[in-house]
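Form 12-C: Joint structure prediction
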Amino acid sequence: MSNLILLSHGSGGDSTRQLIEKEFLKFLSNPILNELLDSGVFEIPGSSFKMALTTDSYVISPIFFKNGDIGKLSVFGTVNDLCVVGAKPLFLSLGLIIEEGLDINDLRKIINSISEAANEAKVKIITGDTKVVEKNKGDKIFINTTGIGIVESHRDWRDRPVQKGDVVIVSGPIGDHGIYIMLERLSIQTDEEVKSDLANLSEVVLGALDRFDQIKFVRDATRGGVATVLNEISQKYNLTIEVYEEEIPVREWVKNASEVLGIDPIYSANEGKFVMIISQNQAQDLLNYLSLYPLTKDAKIIGYVTDINKPKTYLVTRIGTKRILESLKGDILPRIC
Amino acid sequence: MTNLSVINQLTKIGKIEVEFLVREISQLVSNENYTIMEFCGTHTHEISRYGIRSLLPKSLSLKSGPGCPVCVTAEEDIDYIIQIVEKYDLSVITFGDIVRVPGSKGSLSYLKAKGKEVLVVYSPLESVKIAKNNPNKNYLLIGIGFETTVPTLAYTIKKIVEEDLKNIYYFSLHKLTPPAMKALLDSGEVKLDGIIGPGHVSTILGVKGWQEILKDYKIPFVIMGFEPEDIIWGIYILIQKIKKQEYGVFNTYGRSVSFEGNLVAQELVNEVFYISEANWRGFGIIPNSGLELKPQYQYLDAKKIFLLNEPIKVRKTGCRCGEVLRGVIEPYQCPLFAKVCTPDNPKGPCMVSSEGSCAAYYLYERN
Ligand code: SF4
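Section 2 - Result
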């Protein structure tokens, strides 16, 4: 690693993971943190239930986008990180770092959408903090939210062993958010259908965990995309995953834009999609259940756990060849030709 | 010339046809040794990403060429940019992976982490807005890219002039592909039987843009699209041409590439740039292979305005990118490949760029 922090250390891919493992865990290691889940899950002494705690900072540009803004993202992002570990989100903290000169109307819009998103996700903001930094010392507004939730034991999937033959499911078409934001930054005029997939996943995910006791892993596929999540699973459980390109749902506009930009949607960020591992005998029922929700009606089985003791991820391409599928390396940038 | 209408119908080839074509290719090759080169980095990337090599007969060898703008950027140029940025306190605006290419004293990313302003924009046009909104800073816009990207940069230059901006300068790293193709064939270092012609570049240049340069060589050059089916179909045509000893430029990417190319884009580039020599990594100076700003824009030309303290002396490193770019070695033959040099810690531009062959081999072809 170089001796300076570079932007790629925050990309959510391998560099971020290396930073966490080599620099943070070295000093901060404990059994809860070491699990490296989206939320830390802990027990309350003297009580039968568990809690989950997560935190996330939102430093995005643009701060307003189609189907959302930084406010809505900072609520749903944290809520999603809680629900994927089986936690019902309850309370959020809200930390605002505002750059001097931000238009008060923009701030009002953001707070308003925080309020709407919190209502939708049934969480309350119960504490907060505001700081203003000098012009050029920030980028309009940064938001940190910390969320806490309660984990009922039947939703806690962490100790269920992943096995050969288990099925990999994605909850819908992938890559929307990342590809859309890139088009936005390129100032490319886009149709109405081209937008972020930002959504609150808690209802559908918790509902699934209530119904299916063979769900063995859930993660929302944000930065680093589905490919990075798959690699995390295969590393964590020391197993081989094979996914099929033809089965991976991708919207037409995402496909077209990603060809032009030279970016594979499998590495592109999502803000309303999750990856689940479930045993084969419950997979079809889970798909039936997911099809009832507009958010997950296009969920699909994209692959299988094909082997144990070999931490590898493979993609079978649409022309029938098989190759390794790596996690995201470095930053995602449009191709130069 | 191949019948374009037939090929157009075939652009949606299915899996079964792919299998058929793969069998046909095998039969045509029938264990004879052939070497073909994909000139363009996007082809390299897609060939690896779709595992196409694994479908082809072993005796048909696919080499990657120099068609990756970031990869062919000379180390001297990176050092030059870093030197003038520090000496004249310039803020850098650029796009794409060039910021991660290591020079003798680190990369632009490193410069940025040390506190220099280095802005990676998605579109070069953003530079106009940035320079306008920050009149007290001086900006260096790094223009990089082949024929495909230059028109956007030419348009950006015209905007800079229109807005009468006096705080932005241009550093051209642009390169033209046909002269590099010629240099490669002239060197004779790798014996090639056929060439996979670049798709993107040819949308601008047209078939015509290659004919002049290739007319003296006995080699078929087949322009191909980028879908795996396009590539397999194109290779099938290329092998046929090789066997029949039919030479010249053939187009199998008719849905995007015309005979004349994009005349509007060509005109725009001609208005702003003139053809000059350029320094290519792995090749050195290639005549008529670069673009510089025409005299009326020279007040924007960083190379004319900012002078170096000392001539650039390039350090020697273990990176063998130059040989990779000439098709002399495969990425895995570089001793640093995947051991010291990885996409997270690249030692050379061929591992930095998403178009680079070292990155393609690292990401898709290690087992
Ligand atoms: S593997 Fe790295 S060091 Fe070796 S040639 Fe490629 S870029 Fe250079």
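Section 3 - Comments
The pocket of iron/sulfur cluster is lined by residues B 319-321, 324, 331, 334, 336-337, 341, 347-348, 350-351, 358 (CB under 6 Å). Chain A has two domains: 37-155, 167-324.
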